[in-house]
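Open question from group meeting: does this chain pack into something compact, or does most of it stay loose? Before anyone orders reagents, we agreed to write out a predicted structure and look at it together. Recording both the input and the output here so the notebook holds the full record.
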Amino acid sequence: MRRPEHTPLIATKLKCPQYHDTMVERTLAAEGPRLEGCKAILVLAPAGYGKTVFLSQLAQKAPIPTAWYSLEPHDNEPLTFIRHLAGAFQEYVTIDEIQLQRLISRTERDRLCRSAVSFCIRALESTTGIVIALDNWEVISDPCIYQLVGELVPLLPPQVQIAIGGRLSLDVVGTLGLERLHLAGEVQVVGRKDLEFSEAELDRFYTLRCPSLEREQFDTVARMSHGWPIMVNFLTQQGRGLGEGQDKISPALAAYIDKEVLGIVPAELQDFLIKASVFSSFTAAECDELLGISASRDHIRRLESHQLLLAQKGGEYRVVPIIRSYLLDKLGKERASLFGQAASIAIARGRLHEAISCFLEGGQRGSIADLVVKLAEEALLHGRWQEVEDWFDTAIALEDVKGNPRLALLQALV
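Structure tokens returned:
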């Protein structure tokens, strides 16, 4: 651990960020979560969901002052963390500087953690009310710091709350040892779904940031981003070219997803997610069949913990459309084979539109013609002529019809 004289206080990390007037006000920050009766709020989501913005707006709306601490990798060291944590709330509480210096002079980790908890509690008992905001918690991995915060939260005076933000999995509740308080409602979790732009927030973003963009194009942005704030911003910057290449990922966006979103996900989960993306939506059983494994349920559970999947009814999952486009670009040589397998699985389950989409995305147009010829007659017999017409409009090229008499006959019938 660093010596006390090597632990300078960097004041800029203790200032709550201020945002300009074109920032969308988050409804949840204005209306809740409620701090009363709550010891801690954990704001957990992947990169780009506006965790820092949410925390700063929550601080502005709180009826009590906020002691802010923006963490960086340098803070993943107990003495540095303790020095800045004390510095964050010293404006609002009485700090015994002599005791603080004695505290950060300790070298035994076990005694340091317990002494730091006692020091903080004594200091915080002198305040009439304060919120301690710890942002960018994902940079913290030191067990001593986790132990300090995990032991501090249950002992906080009733007039003190702590808010922690970070691109962390939901498992951090357990890592901090806060499961019991979470079950009791004393620890609240604000997750990805809570931080997605609502329809009203999307409308405000459109009005504030891109009124010159055609509304139809912005609706495409909303669909592709699924309300992911930074993706909304990235996609609107593409402007009028958006509709011409909806599934094309810019190099800047690809680099951001690769480093900031998937960078914290273990390699085996990334590989699973890339291959599973051939499905527009999928179940664990379908992924097992596609990949010839039996671990899909566990992979999905872990991806859910990282909040990278959108759950649907019936045990089905999918990913945000813009992320799926990125994942499909990484399939490489396996692309055609995986899409072909996915199409076969879709056909076996009666999802013909999905099978056709798989053949299209896998570049297997000949398989589409064969499938339409095979299934269209039955569809027409059951009155589903509109469905067959859609297949011709979206999946069958003119040259396919010219070279296939049965396709030409079917097209004439619809």
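Observations to bring back to the group:
DSSP finds 23 helices and seven strands in the chain.
Residues 102 and 266 are 40 Å apart (CA to CA).
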